[in-house]
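Hello Y.,

Per our agreement to keep a running log of every chain we model this quarter, I'm adding this entry. I've kept the format consistent with earlier entries: sequence first, then predicted structure.
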Amino acid sequence: MSSHSKPEQVVRACFDAFTARDRKAMEALLADDFHFTSPLDNRLDRDGFFKYCWAGGEEIQGFDIKHLLVEGERVFVTYEARFGKKVLRNAEIQTVRGRKVVETEVYFGWEVPHPVKEGAHKG
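Predicted structure for the entry above:
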């Protein structure tokens, strides 16, 4: 059983496992009925998550959590993901039940610093 008893601890442990590329730790944090959704993925199951997202995450060097809010079993997180010199800001909603993540929704953000001049629209 996971030593992470609060939803926030479970979510932070997921970010740590992803950064460390510790698949065993990540597998222990995801429920058997886990699903992952993003602009590129529609409710991938655990196997789909590891096939597409885990495998594609090798370039990520770390996450800097900027905002984290817990509301019941849902954890809302805004973070900056580091890929070498490139930094992207994303937001997620993770649902935690029984000390495991059952659902992750990722919303892709922008590069930091923002590539568009302040007050302008890229078009």
